[in-house]
Specification:
Shape: globular
Order of helices and strands: EHEEEEHHE
Number of domains: 1
Largest sheet: 2 strands, antiparallel
Strand content: 15-25%
Helix content: 10-25%
Structural class: alpha+beta
Number of strands: 6
């Protein structure tokens, strides 16, 4: 039997994942941002209702790369607050990773 430490498998679990950015067409939603912060997000990435990020299917339009392999946020410095608070291994991360069949950071998994 082999033990796999998911947390130690990459220096940046988010950039090797992206599952939270490809979870739902209704997320990420804008929550606590003020107008000046929202004005920094390029218009092409904001949904028609101005309530969150525009999605292509369940995937945020600002996400580049392939989920589960290599991803990046193209508006990282001006991303919404909800994106800033999602952390590797937290409940939201775990839910999104499970939906995509990906291991959860910080979880030791028995393989065999």
């Amino acid at each position: 039997m082999e033990i796999s430490d998911i947390a130690g498998s990459t220096d940046s679990p988010c950039q090797a994942c992206g599952a939270c950015c490809a979870y739902s067409a209704n997320w990420p939603r804008f929550t606590t941002e003020d107008d000046s912060a929202l004005d920094l997000i390029p218009e092409k990435f904001v949904n028609e209702r101005l309530s969150g990020m525009r999605c292509d299917g369940d995937r945020c339009s600002a996400l580049s790369g392939k989920v589960g392999e290599a991803t990046a946020c193209t508006i990282y410095t001006v991303r919404p607050e909800v994106c800033r608070t999602c952390m590797p291994g937290d409940p939201e991360c775990a839910m999104a990773r499970k939906r995509h069949g990906l291991a959860v950071p910080g979880v030791i998994r028995i393989v065999g």
